[in-house]
Design a protein that fits this description.
Radius of gyration: 21 Å
Helix content: under 10%
Shape: flat
Structural class: mainly beta
Number of strands: 24
Number of helices: 0
Largest sheet: 13 strands, mixed
Oligomer: single chain
């Protein structure tokens, strides 16, 4: 790394002519973030999260009566990064948008809600971040979308939709009703662990990986699963 006029330039091979970067390198300033917001949980039925470059972790707590949103970490960025929380009726909207290029980031977005809080819908989108919904999150519908992140779900749901370009998708189900899963990845593997599920209606495909269904029928609910990947494996257990 070298520094020119207060700007950090990253790269193993960087060519500079008259102070301008001609080839190689990454230009930007390191920016740190540590913001916490509290929102009343009462009346919130939907959470929509759009976070370009941060990992998203969603969990529960016994000590909270509000929804806690914590955005923190640092990143090298050549533009602006905004963070906003907005309540619109029964919907809570959380957005972190990046207007430029970013490098070497470790940004985190942690959402913590009261235990036993139920959501009609949870929707989370990222570009390069991982997404994890932890145990005891309760929702009717869950949607996760990432371009290059790993998707993990341990929450309870009726309908689950996951899509990523180059990350793995890991789903653990402790069913309390019939469920449906739609999961797709271009170059990642898809793993689904089913508990309290009897019959499985499975449609699965992989272009260059393998598909394996080792789930053993048991007493329980019905799972309708559509899983597809181009170059990863699909494993149902």
């Amino acid at each position: 790394m070298i520094n020119i006029n207060g700007k950090n330039i990253f790269g193993k091979s960087t060519t500079i002519v008259n102070g301008r970067i001609i080839g190689g390198g990454e230009l930007g300033k390191t920016k740190k973030f540590d913001e916490t917001r509290l929102e009343k949980a009462r009346g919130i039925k939907k959470i929509l999260i759009n976070s370009d470059i941060s990992d998203v972790d969603f969990s529960v707590s016994d000590s909270l009566e509000e929804i806690k949103i914590h955005f923190y970490g640092q990143v090298v960025i050549d533009g602006e990064l905004s963070f906003n929380v907005r309540k619109d009726g029964s919907e809570l909207q959380i957005k972190s948008k990046n207007s430029g290029s970013s490098f070497n980031g470790n940004l985190k977005l942690d959402i913590t809600v009261p235990r036993k809080m139920f959501f009609e819908k949870i929707s989370i989108k990222t570009i390069s971040g991982d997404i994890c919904l932890n145990k005891e999150i309760l929702a009717n519908s869950i949607k996760m979308v990432s371009t290059a992140g790993k998707l993990e779900n341990y929450a309870k749901f009726t309908s689950y939709h996951a899509r990523t370009m180059s990350g793995n998708i890991d789903i653990t189900v402790d069913a309390e009703n019939d469920i449906s899963i739609v999961a797709s990845s271009m170059s990642g593997s898809i793993s689904v662990e089913l508990n309290n599920i009897g019959d499985v209606m499975l449609s699965a495909s992989s272009m260059s990986g393998r598909v394996r269904n080792s789930h053993r029928k048991q007493e329980g609910y019905i799972a309708d699963i559509d899983a597809s990947t181009m170059s990863g494996n699909v494993v149902i257990s």
